[in-house]
Specification:
Elements lengths: L2 H22 L1 H14 L8 H9 L34 E12 L6 E13 L4 E12 L2 E3 L2 E3 L2 E13 L5 E15 L2 E17 L2 E20 L2 E21 L1
Antiparallel strand pairs: 1-2, 1-10, 2-3, 3-6, 4-5, 6-7, 7-8, 8-9, 9-10
């Protein structure tokens, strides 16, 4: 090869080698990428995450002017009170009675009595219980004849039936009685009674009652030398007005 041609080849090789050396150097590659990045204008001032959020956020709501509304105040409804009814329950009682008694035909005698007892609640309108009575029938006179009195007592059962929610009620009585009629004589038997009453207070009532007393009396009489004995069924009727207190 001629000397001139060798010189030309050497110059060309020297020019090409730096280019290949620079393109193969990592530092050069990084330097070129940084220059390209600085020369490229940013797409937006915000970072990508903020920019995505701004792009997806809904537009601000428009404020619409509305006329002020006045709240309508509803007056409070009156409290509804449910009437309460007292639960029926048993109670002890004491009663005073006064009235008229008929022991003899067409002979009216005054009578007074005091009774006490207890009634148990047996249903919404029914009470049943026991009672004891101590009473007196006064002596009297009629057409010149004197009719003696008597002290008596009784023990029995009583029941009271209320007429619904009204203050009216009915009463029934049944039991045994014993009477001391004086001069060593006595009588005993059974009694039954009914009555009507009205409650004037939750603890007080008035009662009008009729009581039927049934008893047997024995007697003997002599005719000459013969004695005759017999037993007679008698009755005594009482009508009384009573005032009762319950506890």
């Amino acid at each position: 090869m001629k000397p001139i041609a060798r010189h030309v080849l050497a110059i060309a090789a020297a020019a090409v080698l730096p280019v290949h050396a620079q393109s193969l150097s990592p530092a050069w590659t990084e330097y070129r990428q940084r220059q390209q990045t600085e020369q490229t204008p940013p797409a937006a001032a915000q970072p990508p995450a903020h920019r995505a959020a701004a792009e997806t956020a809904p537009p601000p709501a428009r404020l619409v002017a509305t006329e002020p509304t006045h709240a309508v105040q509803t007056p409070p409804s009156p409290a509804v009170t449910t009437p309460t009814t007292e639960t029926p329950r048993g109670a002890a009682f004491v009663a005073l009675q006064a009235g008229q008694a008929w022991i003899y035909d067409d002979v009216r005698q005054d009578t007074q009595a005091i009774s006490a007892g207890y009634r148990w609640q047996a249903g919404p309108v029914v009470q049943v219980g026991i009672e004891g009575v101590a009473a007196r029938i006064d002596a009297t006179s009629k057409d010149g004849w004197r009719f003696g009195g008597a002290d008596y007592g009784s023990l029995g059962a009583n029941a009271r039936f209320q007429f619904g929610r009204t203050p009216l009620f009915a009463m029934a009585r049944l039991g045994y009685w014993y009477a001391d009629v004086g001069e060593g004589d006595s009588a005993d038997g059974g009694y039954a009674g009914v009555g009507l009453g009205v409650d004037i207070h939750r603890h007080v009532n008035l009662t009008l009652a009729y009581t039927y007393h049934l008893y047997a009396s024995s007697y003997c009489y002599r005719v000459y030398s013969t004695a005759y004995c017999d037993t007679e069924i008698n009755r005594a009727d009482l009508v009384t007005l009573g005032l009762e207190a319950r506890f």
